[in-house]
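#help-structures
NK: newbie question, is this the right format to request a structure? protein is Hydroxypyruvate isomerase
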Amino acid sequence: MPRFAANLTMMFNEWSFLDRFDAAAEAGFTAVEFLFPYEHTPDAIAERLMRNGLTQALFNLPPGNWGAGERGLAALPGRFDELKAGVMAALPYAEATGVKRLHIMSGLGSRDDQGVFEAYRNAVIWTAEKLAARGIDLVIEPINGRDMPGYFLNDFAFAERLIRDLELPNLKLQFDIYHRQVLHGDVTVALRRLLPIVGHIQIASVPSRHEPTCEELNDRFIFAELDRLGYDGFVGCEYRPRAKTLDGLGWFAPFAGERDRFSKTTGAIL
Ligand SMILES: O=C(O)C(=O)[C@H](O)CO
Ligand SMILES: [Mg+2]
C-alpha cells in the first residue's frame, strides 16, 4: 500500500498552515509535504509533526522571489551565491523536521542555452554534495510547461540523463505522475524503468489536477503497480481539492488506516 503524504500547500487550505498538520493527521495521513516552510520557524513545524506523529516526506529549497514569478534559482547564471544561501537557510528546517529529501527547483530558462545548462548542473552538484553530508537526498522534478511556462527542467529524459551522468548517489528523480502524463504519457512503463533513480512520487488527476482516481489515468492500477515494484517511498498528494478537502478524500479511505502499519519511532513497516 503506498505511503501517501498530504501536500499541505494544496490540501487542507480550509485551515491555517500550521493547523493543516493536525487536520491531515486527523484525516488519517501519516506523512506530509509542502512547497515551502520558510514563513514559519523550524521549531513550529517540528512541533506540529511531533504532536501528530507525522513524517515530513519532502519540501522545496528556497525558490528565489516566488511572488515576482521566479520558480527556482538553479538554472539562473549569476544567482549561485543566492542559491547557496538558500540551501544553508533550509538546513535548520531539514534538521528540525528530519526530512530525508529536498526538492531543488530549476527556475525558468532554456535547456539549449549552454550557460544556463552549466549553471543548473553546477548548482545541482553543489547542493547534492552539501546535502549528502547530512544524509539527505536531492530530488529534481520535470514540470510541464502548461502549468509552469518556460520552466527549465521540463523533460524526463533530460532529468534521467543528468542523474545517470552525474553519478551522485543522493541525486534522485521526483516523479510527479501528473507532470509525466501531461509531458510524455507512458506512466507505468516509465515508473518501471526509472524506479531505481526515483526519490519521490507525486499524484493528481489529469488533466484537472484535482483528486486522483477520477480522470484520465487509472490511479488505482498505478498504486498497485507501485506495490508490485516494491516502491517504499512516499506518494505526495499534490492536488487541488475540487471542493472541500475532507469531502474529496473518498479515494483515500482504503489507505487511511495505514498509520498503524508503521513504527512511529523508526518508520519501519510493521
Ligand atoms: O509543481 C510541482 O509539481 C511541484 O512539485 C513543485 O514543487 C512546486 O511547483
Ligand atoms: Mg510536483
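mod (FA): yep, format's fine, and the C-alpha cells are attached above. Residues 3-259 form a domain with the TIM Barrel fold (CATH 3.20.20.150).
NK: thank you!
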